[in-house]
Design goal:
Number of helices: 5
CATH topology: TIM Barrel
Strand content: 5-15%
Number of strands: 4
Helix content: 40-55%
Strand order of the largest sheet: 1-2-3-4
Distance between the termini: 22 Å
Radius of gyration: 14 Å
CATH architecture: Alpha-Beta Barrel
CATH superfamily: Metal-dependent hydrolases
Shape: globular
Structural class: alpha/beta
Largest sheet: 4 strands, parallel
Amino acid sequence: MNLPINVHCREAYFDTLNILKEHNKNSQVIMHCFSGSLEFAKECIKQGIYIAIGGVVTFKNAVKVKEVAQNIPLESLLLETDDPYLTPVPFRGKENQPSYVKYVAQEIANLRGISFEEVARTTTQNAKRIFPQIN
């Protein structure tokens, strides 16, 4: 149907990627709530898959997600909140909400040593490529 595919993969990373390689023909793919390694992220990106990162990146011990956020191309990155779960710092432990995505963007900007505006602009452009009805 050529619609985006949103995948939440947990601990079946390369199995999931192999299924997508075999069966997906025309759809953009988003790895929602990404929790895999940098190696897995790079393999996804080779396939044109977007990596979506949420509030977990703000958690002190989220080493893998921070490494991914810092090292993948911005053109392959999406921001998300996973509302109502995985609320970013400084609201961790409370119900998440879409407006908290700015904390995800700020953390990624800090990790990469770039501006918040650059992260916001590029990830918004990425979202518009996947979902052209967004204006």
